[in-house]
Amino acid sequence: MSEAEEPVFLRACRRQPVPRTPVWYMRQAGRSLPEYHKVRAGIPMLEACTLPELIVEITMQPVRRYGTDAAIFFSDIMVPLKAIGIDLDIKPGVGPVIADPIRNAAALQRLRPLEPGDVPYVTEAVGGLVRELGDTPLIGFGGAPFTLASYLIEGGPSKNHDHTKAMMYGAPDLWNELMGRLAGITIEWLKVQVAAGARAIQLFDSWVGAVAPEDYRRSVLPHTSRIFDALEGLGVPRIHFGVGTGELLGLMGEAGADVVGVDWRVPLDEAAGRVPFGKALQGNLDPAILLAPWEVVEERALDVLRRGRTAEGHIFNLGHGVLPATDPDVLARLTDLIHTESAR
Ligand code: 1CP
Question: Which of 25, 35, 88, 152 is the most buried (most CB within 10 A)?
């Protein structure tokens, strides 16, 4: 395929001209879709992530329904940690829960490197998806070290990340060892997906907005940069996303991704001025807006589109994941709106 014929999603990631703005949604697969609840019934989340046929079906569901410009692999950021033997579960209505949180050097020994043979179902599922998807690119993804560390140290979802920050501030050697091991695991996890056919990757640092810029620079950036550096030679666009990261957008840009994800708190024209030169932006409609009447959705979505035009490249998305209560028909209408209006 010549470069001119590459899918619009990949071209926007590379800051090339596009005939219309590409659209996909974080959490487009999953809880907001009735067909998802149907196929997942009775199958625990982590088990679902090891079943290639089910992974393919769930990943395809939103692509079929909405005609999004990219698919996101159905898995979870915790799957590679489960695969190396960490005792964890994903509890319905809660999220990841770790049986024995990692808070000292001895516990760190449980974090061994990931090998491709630990996740054969990922290779199989990505291969199956590449066949099903045709031209639509598959986005592989993984958790960034800070966000994974937070789950491992806190033992589950956390509001203030107290224990995590206590280690970051108070035990820098232990912190760096933990972050280094997690970066290594994520590098392997992402490489497996790209080797099997994923055409872009997204690194989720969902909770890193809790960290101040100087601490991000000192304690997070080196580890995250290592991941983007390790993937550079693979030739797939790299997307970097976090929530509440308005003050970190410049530093996240420095970490090395091609595309910086923006949540709904910073308008895209403002965000474009905060990231270094040479970055595309992804975002950033507040997911809660989809619960408002259509006129509101339309007005706000067009505003995102307008502001996105000031960026070097723009991929339309929500500022965070689709909320479970979202009406899928609204997402279908939104996708059509973005496709039509951005082509004018
Ligand atoms: O049973 C269920 O349906 C559980 C809900 C669920 C789903 C559908 C969880 C539990 N994970 C997932 C899939 C998932 N997780 C995807 C699928 C693809 C898609 O986006 O369509 C992705 C990309 C993730 C990534 C993920 N997991 C992130 C980063 C993205 C984000 O939302 O910020 C995080 C933080 C997790 C942890 C996690 N897993 C599940 C939940 C509910 C959570 C968050 C818990 C918390 O609030 O801390």
Answer: 152
